[in-house]
Amino acid sequence: MKTILVPVKMVLDSNARPRVRTDESGIDLSGMRMSINPFCEIAVEEALRLKEAGLAEEVVVVSIGPAKAQETLRQALAMGADRATLIEIDETVEPLAVAKLLRAVVGEEQPDLVLLGKQAIDDDCNQTGQMLAALLGWPQATFASAVRFEDGRLLVTREIDAGLQRLSLPLPAVVTTDLRLNEPRHCALPNIMKARKKPLKIGAPADYGVDIGRRLKILAVRPPAGRKSGIRVATASELVGDLRAAGIV
Amino acid sequence: MTTLLIADHDNRMLSDATARALSALGAIDDAVHVLVAGHQAGPVAGQAAKLRGVGRVLLADDEALAHGLAEPVAVLVLSLAGGYRVIAAPATSGGKDVLPRVAALLDVMQVSDVVRVVSPDTFERPVYAGNAVAVVQSTDEKKLLTIRTSAFSAAGVGDVAVPVEEVRVPDGVWQARFDGETLSSSDRPDLASARIVVSGGRALGSAEKFQEVLGPLAERLHAAIGASRAAVDAGYAANDLQVGQTGKVVAPDLYIALGISGAIQHLAGMKDAKVIVAINKDEDAPIFQVADYGIVGDLFEIVPELEKALG
Ligand SMILES: Cc1cc2nc3c(=O)[nH]c(=O)nc-3n(C[C@H](O)[C@H](O)[C@H](O)COP(=O)(O)OP(=O)(O)OC[C@H]3O[C@@H](n4cnc5c(N)ncnc54)[C@H](O)[C@@H]3O)c2cc1C
């Protein structure tokens, strides 16, 4: 493979507790810790492993998001990616529009493989990779827990509801990552310094001639229904007594 | 408004997920068309034809559809799409794989993981691992929806079977090739639809202990077995047992969490259970904040006592 393209998204850190705005307009991200989406980080790691195994020449990362997402790209560069592009936009962009922007990036970069996270942990949509594959007319392997490249084909193990499924794909292809694909590396300080010098190009959605208008109107964002607080019981037999009394067992 | 529901099945049995998605769609359409795409899947079409709320069953039988791969299924659905205002699938691994592919080809922004149908164009869906619920209105002419099945009960079976019509898969070159599968076999009830789920976390310590502790309790309660991500990552349990934001979402009558701390990503998959029981030796574990009944203590001592108390 020559180039692997890895789209990455900046999201609210997975350890942070989202605050729902009282006016129901969305999640208040001000002052919150932002990080690379964990599934995207796994995708970067997998691309780097393919490169380090001599199976790909170059890893290019791309993000669609606000100026601050440069930090997310710098992190991917510090992990070892070669180049980065930010398509800068402050508003949130829906997966369909992201897929269209990525199609345009694929046109420029001509990658053999697009490796991306199966879902972003903010909107939890789980759509972008499949949509991109559709727009490109490429094969897809979603929810990958193992990826090998042999004799010009990708052999992907997928996590499915009933167990594991294995697919073999010709290139070019789209693969989306699941949690167990790998454990991403930590970035050493010298690499973080080096990453500052790696090329990071900044563009705008308009440069790609893509309509990114929203299709879904968000009418409200509310906190979920809470659970009422429960009770502590001292012993197993007390628990069984309570469950029986409530008709649960 | 006509609605097409893509059935989830294994060529022999229609899954419970399909019947649940059907009842979600009942708010939009009382005669949903169900598409069974598979190979030698005639029996599945027969089962779908008897579900209440189905108007017609479309059966596409083709070797290329044997494993539900995204490319042929998407092309098939696309060939039928013209007649439908709503195209939906349960949010199973199959539905999540295929439907966005169809949506992109139709230039529609999909609404994923619908937990409530507010009106034919407005839906509720969880975001941020269930820490918020978004109310979204689709402005696309066609609506493409995946349904979070744990939020709906299964549609019932009626006495009459609606007609089954055969449809053909358009010719095409399918690039991805099926290369085999390793399916978990279990005589336990299915995790996604079980009435009782017993789940284990990192505390179990090994695959042997996981089985030894959870197996008999699940057996006694006729429960399905679930696991936290930590337990799956460590190899104590199979990947298809993971409950959570990125695993399966369950809403059983009773969920028993053994040695699970209650990270938000885990709660995302089980906090809609009717009754939650937590057993954890750390009294400050966040799982206790959602538990109806909590026991602070060592699960290796309490679980055997629990079995004894159940008799
Ligand atoms: C992107 C992303 C997605 C994720 N998706 C999921 C998901 O889908 N599902 C999921 O579960 N997690 C998910 N996680 C992981 C999640 O954040 C937690 O790390 C995980 O749920 C922890 O699993 P655990 O509770 O088994 O382990 P721990 O957090 O280590 O908890 C173990 C618990 O066992 C208790 N314990 C130890 N010994 C005993 C004993 N003898 N008796 C009783 N109690 C004992 C401890 O007090 C502790 O509370 C995700 C994380 C990320 C970043």
UniProtKB/TrEMBL annotation, chain A:
GO biological process: carboxylic acid catabolic process
Family matches, as Pfam families: ETF (PF01012)
Sequence ranges assigned to domain Electron transfer flavoprotein alpha/beta-subunit N-terminal in this UniProt record: 24-212
GO molecular function, one term: electron transfer activity
Keywords: Electron transport, Transport
Coiled coil: none
Swiss-Prot/TrEMBL cofactor(s): AMP
Alphabetized CDD domains for the sequence: ETF_beta
Subunit structure as annotated in this protein's UniProt entry: Heterodimer of an alpha and a beta subunit.
Biological role: The electron transfer flavoprotein serves as a specific electron acceptor for other dehydrogenases. It transfers the electrons to the main respiratory chain via ETF-ubiquinone oxidoreductase (ETF dehydrogenase).
Protein family according to the UniProt entry: Belongs to the ETF beta-subunit/FixA family.
Protein name per UniProt: Electron transfer flavoprotein subunit beta
Lineage summary: Bacteria, Pseudomonadati, Pseudomonadota, Alphaproteobacteria, Acetobacterales
Automatic annotation (TrEMBL), chain B:
Pfam assignment, any one: ETF_alpha
PROSITE patterns according to UniProt: ETF_ALPHA
Domain Electron transfer flavoprotein alpha/beta-subunit N-terminal intervals: 3-182
Binding site for FAD: 202, 228-229, 242-246, 259-266, 280
A GO biological-process term: fatty acid beta-oxidation using acyl-CoA dehydrogenase
Co-factor binding comment: Binds 1 FAD per dimer.
Key words, A-Z: Electron transport, FAD, Flavoprotein, Transport
Family per similarity comment: Belongs to the ETF alpha-subunit/FixB family.
PANTHER family: ELECTRON TRANSFER FLAVOPROTEIN ALPHA, ELECTRON TRANSFER FLAVOPROTEIN SUBUNIT ALPHA, MITOCHONDRIAL
Name of protein: Electron transfer flavoprotein subunit alpha
